[in-house]
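ARCHIVE CARD
CATEGORY: sequence design from structure
SOURCE FIELD: tokenized fold
FIELD CONTENT:
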């Protein structure tokens, strides 16, 4: 099996140090996690007795003022985008959504029996698939079920992923009435040849129509998703894509490195067959163009793959050191427990993670038996929690306060984690990271290798050796 994709840079080389930075990325880039959790999801196991899910939820309820974050995976799509790595179900039978909604309601009821429903919901996200595969009536029904069951905070951030090709005014009207205040639109690339290559053709007019529809309905905050490293992409086409999407005045952008995993997603094999993939140097240059274009337009590099306007809550959280990271990426709502519904979705409390089956049949079987549909998960040890603090501090704040952590844990951080720090010696010599007894800081030069620094504190990580090619 081929290795997983190499870590992409969190921002491109810049200025006179461009060649040096690129050399450092070549030198240190290795396959590794994105750290939307620690330990990563590939360390989950199927020993549900060890997980003790009922106990994990009870432990979570023991802190009644801890807020909730809700995620709903709505997996259906009318057609397959060949680049996509998500868990999706391709169908044009809209009655499937009716059946799936009934199953989501069962799961909501099962979770509600175990959860302290006095806890406020601070975040809600509908992800996919294509959430707008669901009709306005079904979206209304799902939203009504949520508002009957949970107590939403007045300032809750409620968001949804939107495919501009599959959204209608009546759906947007319902979403606004349900409190949706942020939408994330999948654009990926605006070049027609690239769109044809990835089996996702959507015009600039469709993108504009969707954005205007959302804002006219009172959904003000718009995130746009872009992908670099796709077939037929060039530096020039990516530069034009940036210019095109900036005309939509987004509040945030998520800029993802295309993950080529045909052994997991067979639809991607067509890219190899056609021989249209850009090379690693071209791919890095593409991200450089995106990052420079967004920064020139005033966006803040929040971290890894997120950009936001300076007055956006995400950029403010980055500035104030309150940024959080969960399975949806960077977030402003630190401290919330995540309860996720639907196939493949992952829940997270301070002590545990658990994931639902990716198989619709297995999901239905568990619900029919009156059981929570968790298929695998992980219970964190005290050391796991400490290492999670260290890794998330690096990922979110690009620094660690050893003095504060040492007081909390009653230890000397540089002694307890001396081996981890020693493993960073070469990065330190290259000016990528620095530390002393008071703390650790990743330098601007080191930010493209944010995850490499985090990996030093990951005791589950098995180093596979240097990457043979820069496949960012």
């Amino acid at each position: 099996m081929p290795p997983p994709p190499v870590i992409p840079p969190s921002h491109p080389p810049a200025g006179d140090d461009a060649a040096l930075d690129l050399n450092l990325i070549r030198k240190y880039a290795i396959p590794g996690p994105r750290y939307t959790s620690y330990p990563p999801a590939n360390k989950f196991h199927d020993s549900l007795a060890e997980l003790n899910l009922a106990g994990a939820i009870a432990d979570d309820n023991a802190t009644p003022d801890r807020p909730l974050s809700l995620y709903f995976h709505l997996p259906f799509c009318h057609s397959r985008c060949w680049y996509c790595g998500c868990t999706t179900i391709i169908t044009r039978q809209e009655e499937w959504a009716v059946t799936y909604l009934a199953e989501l309601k069962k799961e909501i009821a099962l979770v509600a029996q175990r959860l302290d429903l006095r806890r406020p919901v601070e975040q809600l996200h509908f992800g996919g698939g294509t959430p707008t595969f669901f009709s306005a009536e079904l979206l209304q029904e799902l939203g009504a079920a949520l508002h009957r069951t949970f107590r939403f905070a007045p300032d809750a951030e409620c968001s949804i992923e939107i495919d501009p090709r599959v959204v209608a005014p009546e759906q947007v009207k319902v979403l606004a009435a349900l409190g949706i205040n942020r939408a994330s639109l999948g654009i990926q690339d605006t070049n027609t040849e690239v769109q044809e290559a990835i089996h996702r053709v959507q015009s600039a007019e469709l993108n504009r129509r969707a954005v205007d529809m959302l804002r006219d309905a009172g959904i003000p905050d718009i995130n746009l998703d872009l992908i670099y490293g796709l077939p037929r992409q060039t530096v020039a086409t990516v530069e034009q894509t940036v210019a095109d999407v900036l005309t939509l005045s987004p509040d945030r952008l998520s800029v993802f490195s295309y993950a080529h995993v045909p052994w997991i997603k067979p639809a991607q094999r067509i890219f190899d067959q056609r021989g249209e993939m850009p090379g690693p140097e071209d791919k890095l240059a593409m991200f450089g163009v995106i990052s420079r274009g967004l920064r020139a337009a005033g966006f803040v590099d929040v971290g890894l793959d997120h950009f936001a306007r300076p007055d956006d809550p995400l950029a403010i959280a980055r500035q104030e050191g309150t940024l959080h990271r969960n399975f949806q990426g960077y977030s402003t709502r630190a401290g919330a427990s995540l309860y996720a519904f639907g196939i493949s979705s992952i829940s997270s409390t301070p002590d545990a993670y658990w994931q639902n089956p990716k198989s619709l049949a297995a999901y239905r079987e568990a619900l029919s038996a009156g059981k929570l549909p968790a298929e695998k998960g992980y219970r964190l040890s005290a050391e796991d929690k400490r290492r999670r603090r260290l890794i998330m501090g690096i990922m979110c704040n690009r620094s660690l306060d050893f003095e504060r952590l040492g007081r909390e844990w009653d230890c000397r951080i540089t002694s307890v984690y001396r081996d981890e720090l020693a493993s960073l010696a070469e990065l330190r010599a290259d000016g990528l990271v620095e530390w002393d007894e008071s703390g650790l800081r990743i330098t601007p030069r080191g930010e493209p290798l944010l995850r490499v620094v985090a990996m030093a504190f990951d005791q589950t990580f098995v180093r596979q050796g240097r990457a043979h090619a820069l496949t960012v």
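CARD ANNOTATION: Confidence is low (pLDDT under 50) at residues 1-20, 464-472. DSSP finds 19 helices and 19 strands in the chain.
SHELF: design records, drawer C
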